[in-house]
Amino acid sequence: MSMSHPLEVFKFCPKCGSENFEINNALSRHCSDCGFTYYQNPRASTAGFILNSKGELLVVRRAKEPQKGTLDLPGGFVDNEETAEEGMIREIKEETGLEIKEVKYLFSVPNIYRYSGMDIHTLDLFFLCHAEDDALPEAADDAAECNWVPLREVYVERFGLRSIRKAVHTFLQQNC
Question: Which of 19, 22, 132, 145 is catalytic?
Fold first, then answer.
């Protein structure tokens, strides 16, 4: 699987269709015909460390590629006109059915997410979330299953995505 930067994939100006759409710098292409400059900035993504009062972490199994079948944290891309916190709450609801009222930002990890044959640069934002004791998550959307796992039984190598593995490692170092 070859890695390709998004700027290498786009050959024509998205505004006027010109072939004079050249690399401007490491983050942009510029059209010499219409003057449009396209910047390739990272896409915001969220993932949640959802804990219950027993100290268990909610993990999901990925239902889709990339890394289908591996463990993951609930989360996903932030939509336009949405804060990262709103995106986190929405993604948790979509994937697990849980209603999370409050999220606390922890840290971020830059990532490259392979999708549709292209490498999408993301900035993955990680949040701490708490679930009610009687919360019963149900897998939906991008999650094939949901499970509460005691922190001492969370193994980094079972998580499929590089940024998630790095974040889980960091989280466990800080909380175990």
Answer: 145
Q: Which residues make Cβ contacts (< 8 Å) with residue 83, sequence separation at least 6?
A: none
Distance separating alpha carbons of residues 27 and 147, to the nearest angstrom: 40
Q: Phi/psi of residue 21, each to 5°?
A: -110, 90
Q: How far apart are CA 78 and CA 45, in angstroms?
A: 6
Does the pTM surpass 0.90? The reply is no
Active site residue 85: no
Predicted pLDDT of residue 132: 78
Burial class (CB in 10 A: 0-12, 13-18, 19+), 97: middle
Q: Which residues contact 19 (CB under 8 A, 6 or more apart)?
A: 11, 12
What are residue 64's phi and psi, to 5 degrees?
-135, 160
